[in-house]
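Give me structure tokens for this 258-residue protein.
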Amino acid sequence: MWDKTSKFIELTGHRGTKNTRPENTLVSFREALDLKVDVLEYDVHLCRSGELVIMHDTLVDRTTDGEGAISFMTFDEIQKLDAGIKFGEQYRGCRVPTLNETLDLVKSAGYDLGQIIEIKDFRPECVDKVVKMVHEYDLVDETVIEAGDAPTLLYIQDKYPEFKTLAFPSIFMKRHYEHVFDRAWGISISFNSPRFKSGEASVDDWVKFCDQRDLEIFMFNGDTREQIDYCLAHHAKNITSNDPAAVIDYLRELGVRK
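Here you go.
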């Protein structure tokens, strides 16, 4: 895992299997593991009562039947939310997972599985709790920590240098300091972003930046053969997909997946 010299591509399940199951739920994560993705990616927030919960957005509104900010909600309140009903009636009753539950799943995968934990709550206490829990599960080597905030990544790099960190191109960082890239493992490039398509930034320039600094190139999201071709042409070492099942066989055909 995380071998920059390997010819094989790491395929990452984005929030599990985001296109086919409710994102950031255990049912989505289990499907990704059934597909034998190389890496599971998910997002972590700290709720008001101090528990670490899995969700992409700051608000629960988009993916659950509730409303409000996670940081203002207790764990008991979050556990009452339905995280599946908006995706489909058949997923009624899916709950918002905890980091404990997710790490239990990763630990019991039964194969060499990596994980990208994107920290969405930039408070140091959230980072500290995530790091402590990953240590407790003995999953440090399998883990890359991602954040769209330079001070958060610098905090991790300074206090927890045993962790690999993943940054975004500067225009996507909430707060940015250029030296955050000096100790990063890689950069995550959303090549389909309107900010790239508008010319505000250049994918080619960021690929060149990564190549010059030996930063691993993570690209998202590769959900079609054409998108996979684009990622590979731009030196991606890790390709994140919303629909891993749709691209696994194609990666094998190309000889870049075992």
